[in-house]
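discrete fold record:
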Amino acid sequence: MKIHRPIIFSSSMLLVSALHADGLMGGGEPKYDERVSKALNELDINYHIDEDGDYRVTFKTGDDRSQLVFIFSTTETYRNLEIREITSAAYESETDTLPAHIALRLLKENSSIKMGAWQSSGKLAIFSAKISANADPESLKTAIAIVLKTADGMEGELNPDRDVF
């Protein structure tokens, strides 16, 4: 069994100092959720941890394509539910917002998706799924697969000649 060690990308000392002062970092390294590391290691999935403590996983999707998936360490809580978000981008607009025809297409797509939804983040179209922060490795793998397949499929349709994400 392979041992995966998180690769942590460091930023400038100014950023590290600012985050440490805000209590977002301890010991000079980003805080990351070890539950995700444990699950990804069990699934034998390679990952990197970015300066925010989020997991970045790049998957080969065939036909010389790949897709970047983010698994956020920060979770949200609603009553007794702790929720983790998994996302992947599929489109980047040339303007500050998504064109209306793209936004409408994604909104229509949402009605047929079993898990997750399309959302706009400024100029990006992002597919996002939310799962229990305590999800077992197989459930995490299923959620990643849904995000990966959905985002890469849409990226291929909207950008047939390019693989951006």
